[in-house]
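Fold this complex.
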Amino acid sequence: MKRSIQVCSLLISILILAGCGSHTMMGPRTYPHLDRTPRYRIEINSEKGGFSGALIIRKEARSGWRGSLVNEFGVKAFDIISPDRYTCKLQNVMPFISKWYIRSTITDDFRYLLWDGNEGVRRSGKQIDKLPNGTIVLTNTRRHIEYILHPLPNHDRR
Amino acid sequence: MKTVVISIIIAWTSIAYAIAQDYREASPQQQKQMLQKITEASSRMKSLACDFEQTKELSILNEKMSSKGRMFYRNDQCVRWEYSTPYAYTFVFNNNRILMTQADGKQSVTDVKSNNLFQEIVKIMISSIDGSGLTDSKSFTSKFFIAGDDPMVTLTPVRKDVRRMFATIKLFFTAKDYSVDSVVMEESNGDNTTIKLTNKRYNETINPSLFAIN
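Structure:
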């Protein structure tokens, strides 16, 4: 009995240390395909229409990802908040695109882009590719939607 | 200590009051005069070419994003909005059609009548240039303010779905020629977009190809 408890304690200790070690080795979960530069010219292309504008997005230590998608005139399409890899929601959605199926698809696609996607790997019907010029392409093969993110120089940093 | 706190509160209130006093609501007579002068100035304007700087304040990130470009307007309701930074993008409105040209040269043509959003954006753009929104009571309710001699008009969209995008549009005019100097679009979600017009040239001949939609 005493030996069993010792073995269990040892196993638990190993698991805890392994978890700590893995966190230390990997660091915060930032993905290489999203640069620290938080501004992109974005095109969203689908069979039913498209959208173009700018995506301004930032990863914060405590609150995860926060960002805004606006069109060229500065009219906001939506804000995006994703505190962790399991949670992603849209806020202040432009009325014309505030349909449940559109929100659901965009939310899922952005969650994949921000947390799950690895370059060149297709998973869950989605794939992320990064071009030599820094452009990021997220393709939702099931819904036939393409998100193209072109990095922008950021002259407005505070 | 108590005296100091009260003094600070009074001083702060005075400052706030002074700032708020910059624009005060115009009297009915002032409003009538302002509207007349703005309308006269607008009727004299056959064309306008200018530079613009657009600043978007993003409340969720506490950040600003700036864009710059040129704008061309002809009084038969042709508008060309040409962004140059941070990326190239051109928007042309002519005869109820819109031509959008992306940075990579990709173009798309849309009929304004089939797109609610663009209809409203075009209306706001044109109102911002020629002040027509001041008399378009079907689309906007307007309120007039004045600071010194400079008028400011707030336009509130009548349509509920448009108000969900733009709570108000503020047009700041200069008393020098009663033209629009800047526009502030306040969104319902707390964001603002400010557009400043500079280097304004009136009634120059503008190459018709700038408004062409093929």
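The CA atoms of residues 52 and 197 of chain B lie 5 Å apart.
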